[in-house]
Amino acid sequence: MKNSKLILMVYVAAFVLLLYFSIQFADAVLAARAIDMADRMVLSLLPLSNLVGLLLASGITFFLWSGNAWWSGKEEKRKFRSELDKVIDELKKVAWPGKDETKITTISVFVFVFVMMGIFIVFDLVWSNLSKLI
């Protein structure tokens, strides 16, 4: 893999996001029972919802990392990682704006916002006075 460090960072970020949402999902599912099992402690150390979320996130991340395409043939093996590699290669081709272009764009956005703010203030004053007349 050409971009193995970037791909690893993408997987770590995906794992952290999956961990958060998996814990929330496990908490909601385990708390929906008549007996709230979400706050039960495992080995007096970790809430059950956190353990279930960790297992879900680990399983999904391992599935994506291994890249085994069990739903099709072996030609699809590691497809997710190769597609991620292609995305990173395409992002390297993007022409990012320079410092001067960023300054000019930022200033033009601020000017536009202030002009529109003035126009909306004028419209608000006009409409409020018209509504008082009616």
What does this structure look like?
- With 134 residues, the protein is mostly helical.
- It has two domains: 89 residues, no CATH class; 39 residues.
- It contains four helices and two strands.
- The chain has a two-stranded antiparallel sheet with strand order 1-2.
- Strand 1 and strand 2 form a beta hairpin.
- Helix 1 packs antiparallel against helix 2.
- It is flat and about 70 Å long.
- The N and C termini lie far apart (71 Å).
- The mean pLDDT is 77.
Task: Tell me the layout of helices and strands.
Blueprint (H helix, E strand, L loop, with lengths): L3 H28 L9 E2 L3 E2 H19 L12 H14 L6 H35 L1
Antiparallel strand pairs: 1-2
Helix pairs in contact: 1-2
Query: How many strand segments?
Result: 2
Structural classification: mainly alpha
Average the pLDDT over all residues and give the rounded result.
77
Radius of gyration: 26 Å
Shape: flat
Helical fraction equals: over 70%
Order of helices and strands: HEEHHH
Q: What's the main sheet like?
A: 2 strands, antiparallel
Strand content: under 5%
Please, how many helices? 4
Distance between the termini: 71 Å
How many structurally independent domains? 2
Strands side by side in the biggest sheet: 1-2
- Which regions contain 5 or more consecutive residues with pLDDT less than 50? none
